[in-house]
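Format notes (please read before filing issues)

Several people have asked whether sequences and structure tokens are stored in separate files. They are not. Every record keeps both together, in the order shown below: the sequence lines, then the token lines. Line labels are part of the format and must not be stripped during preprocessing.
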Amino acid sequence: MNHQEKTMPETIRRYIDSRMAGSASTLEIIEGISHEFHIPARTAYEMLQEYLLLQRPRCL
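Then the structure lines:
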């Protein structure tokens, strides 16, 4: 599966939003995603990376 085919579930996006608003550390967010959604930490890390890339302002 390539990067364009990945889609992040809305529940995980909302989970990250809430943890970012609460000033959680990167490790806390990754551990939380892994625990709450029963996925490997590596996958949680990749999802957080994707989330952050999508949040980054785009330069023209």
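For reference, the curators noted about this record: The chain has a mean pLDDT of 87. The chain has one domain: 7-54.
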